[in-house]
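Hi R.,

Here's the chain you asked about this morning:
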Amino acid sequence: MDLGIKGKRALVCASSKGLGRGCAEALAEAGCDLVLNARGTDALQATAEQMRAHGVSVTAIAADITSPEGRALVLAAAGPVDILITNAGGPAPGMWHDWTEADFLKALGANMLTPIALMTALLPGMIERKWGRVVNITSQSVKAPIPQLGLSNAARTGLTGYVAGTARQVAPFGVTINNLLPGIHDTDRAIALDSGVMAAEGISMDEARRQRAATIPARRYGTSAEFGAACAFLCSRHAGFIVGQNILLDGGATNATL
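And here is the predicted structure, written out as tokens:
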């Protein structure tokens, strides 16, 4: 399928690996010029070089997108952007009695306020050009809370509420905002979570992964490639009537009717 976005300019956050990289790859395959961002320079530059193999322009900016200084650097280098993919690593798991106000402020900054700041900066240009796509990578936890991920539950659900209203305000101008809600995918985040289970239960990594996969109806972890394909479709010319939605990519793990 021709996604109809060849030549569009896309900013993809946290795109040197994992789900962000999967989105960048799919957009590059669709012909989008890329602005890639991550904190680690080496991995980011390696990813940028591989994306250029698709024949698209790639700009790589190493910066902490969750800091005001990092955002300013990225936005200045990005210029006018047609497609925005927001993404940032989630907070560490824990228990409710362990989290301080500082922990919540950090989680809100990374997983709620940073995407909002990026949208605030880039939506006016999209509105002026009468076309734009925003996809926020959030979590399945906004549909069904994950108890040990309370910081993520709170921050990402706050972002979801913001998107619900804002998406409907910008839709008349040909701009869509939607959220992709990943379950467990074969990324560094899964390794971190499985490592915690491995340590807590005294089992091997293979056993921790097997146990988690058994809780997923698809009986496997997702891949960054299939996640990226879903993201690219939401950014396509075919998805202009999808507005303010929260789309699960979790292999059926969230046990809900709606």
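One quick note: The mean pLDDT is 96.

Cheers,
M.
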